[in-house]
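Fig. S4 source data, part A: sequence.
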Amino acid sequence: MALVKFSSVGLRYGTGSEVLHDVNFELEAGTFHFLTGPSGAGKTSLMKLLYLGQKPTRGIISMFSNDMSTMPRKKTPEIRRQIGVVFQDFRLLNHLSAFDNIALPLRVSNIPEADIKKNVTELLRWVGLGDKTDSRPPTLSGGEQQRVAIARAIINRPKLLLADEPTGNIDSDIGIKLLSLFEELNRHGTTVLIATHDEDIVRHFPHPQMRLEEGTFLSTSPKTRSEAA
């Protein structure tokens, strides 16, 4: 079943030329893909459409069996709760500790505090930040902030995980560890799409790629989970 489907999707900002043209693809539930391509290819713009941060100029986007152009606006928060996003610029709340930043999605979902403490503490330890529980983002390095952002995106086990250059500010060993965590989520059913320039990561994890250049897909290799295994 297609979790996400783009049909003839185009995107332009203001009156400029299109940054995405006639984008067509499907993401099957439970798959893991890399989104690759040079800087300026449109990867971040495509991610914005996927996490509902931008509406397409034309075409149809379907997510979780909903046509996004006709879906009632009041249903948008429900859709967003099923999507975990790792942004390039982290988007952490500077007045909150690392723990509280990661806990936000759980608190919005009214998870009991005892469960929040257990799950967040375990995840902080897993991403190598067990000693940074009470630290606020301005006191953390770029790589540490990146790991907090990743932990926040995956703490709620979303149905769809989107990551825009998730290994850009961390060393290769931590990058491989975090990609292994993404794979573990994928094995439990989360659909994963990672936009990256990191060729080493792509080589290390042999998942199918979707390649963008100048706003157009040059190639896609969408596979079902069983085909990718």
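Fig. S4 source data, part B ends here. The first strand starts at residue 2 and ends at 12.
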